[in-house]
Amino acid sequence: MADSLDIAAVTRLTGLTARALRFYEARGLVEPLRTASGRRHYDAAALERLNLILSLKKAGLTLAQIQRLTANRRIDLHGLITAQLDHLEAQARRISDAQALLVSVKSRIDHGEPIDAETFCSLIRHEQQDTTTMSQDQWKAVTDRYFTPEEQAEWAEKMGGVDPTFDNDAYAAQWKELGDAIKAALPMDPASETAAGFVQRWFDLLKPFTQVATPAMWTGTMKMYDDMPNWPAKADPGFDAEVWAFMKEATAARMLAGDAVAIPGYDPKGGAA
What we know:
Layout (H helix, E strand, L loop, with lengths): L4 E2 H8 L3 H9 L6 E2 L5 E3 L1 H15 L4 H7 L7 H34 L6 H30 L2 H11 L8 H18 L7 H18 L4 H12 L14 H16 L9 E2 L3 E2 L1
Antiparallel strand pairs: 1-3, 2-3, 4-5
Helix pairs in contact: 8-9, 9-11
């Protein structure tokens, strides 16, 4: 293995830790050579692969996205890049908002205003309320594009039957948690047991809406989410276009296996059958 490097040399060359290299190997991202004693060695192809991984990570892609992109499988690269740009823009906005808040509070302290922990927390809560208002405005921009005023009125009427104690903030947090869990698990076989578990959790979360929505309302909703990359505002449902596309595949696989879903007439390929 004269033309290869051992793991210590690769860590010096790339800046990666030995633990990271072993993790990439376990995820199937890189395949080092092995000596007779089982020690890892990296040839030119493996080093090129590692440099590719590092480049994609600098672009902000997750390991799951990198794995899908480098697995020689068909992938919607435009959709992936669009979703990643949306994610980075949202992340940049959160960082910018946090910086603006901290700069504002620091300026008040610099001018002698007494800011204690309680006041600081109050300012943060006020900022969160402003963010919630902005999020509502973003969702209105999206729904105005995909639903007529009459259809929105029907949604409002139907949703009037939802439990009055329904907590929207807690519900949004559940979608974010589930969306992040699915994203971290990708790539994944849509017909796997893990995917089936995610489908079950997905439809469990949908229950407040499946109990009141009509097939026509679901058709419109499906079309709206299918067009996520073209939304007029950066509304955040808790998952991105990649997760949405995967869940449609996983739901179709579950239905093909004979499992029922919670929406009568539901067709993951087109909304309502």
